[in-house]
Every structure is written in C-alpha cells, then in structure tokens.
Amino acid sequence: MEQESLRIWFDPEGDVLEVGFPKPRKGYFKSAGDDVFVRVDEKGNICGFALLNVTKRTGKIRETELPIRARFSGKRKKPA
Q1: CA 71 from centre of chain
Q2: What are the boundaries of each domain within the chain?
Q3: What is the DSSP string of the chain?
Q4: Alpha carbon of 19 to those of 6, 55, 70: distances in Å?
Q5: CA 17 to chain centre
Q6: pTM for the structure as a whole
C-alpha cells in the first residue's frame, strides 16, 4: 500500500484545524456536523478534514510534533 504524508495546519486566528494531503487536490468540503467538515475529491474520496472552534474543544493548544499515522477511507471501488 502506498503511503503519503499528511499536512496538519492550524489557524489560531480562525480557530481552525485542517488535516489533509500536502499535494493540492481538487475537491470541496462538506459538513459532517458539529463544526466538522470532510474534504472530498472530485471522485467522492475523502482526502482530509477540518475542525472549527478547535480551542473551544481542546482547551489550551501548544505546539508539538505528533508521530501519527492516518488512513482515510471513502468511496470504495467496485472489484473488476
């Protein structure tokens, strides 16, 4: 399975956390409820997400490095 790094970005002024792939992909955000938005590409595959009002959810945020792995799943391809 091919692995791709993630881009994690926090905007303190807008209080928004966004996680996605570093290479730009055409797509759009759709609401998943409660200030959570899922980024979907043109084919309907999930390629990231955004959280609004992050500091209200987590309290104090500090800068840190996270050794994380993530796997996004979305629309499944039908077997040929």
Answers
A1: 11
A2: 7-58
A3: ------EEEEETTTTEEEEE-SS---EEEEEEETTEEEEEETTS-EEEEEEESHHHHHSS--------------SPPPP-
A4: 7, 16, 10
A5: 8
A6: 0.65
Buried b / exposed e along 66-79 (16+ C-beta atoms within 10 A): eeeeeebeeeeeee
pLDDT at 75 over 60: no
At residue 47, the pLDDT reads 87
pLDDT by residue (tens digit) across 21-72?
Answer: 878 788 899 998 888 899 998 888 888 889 898 887 776 656 655 555 666 5
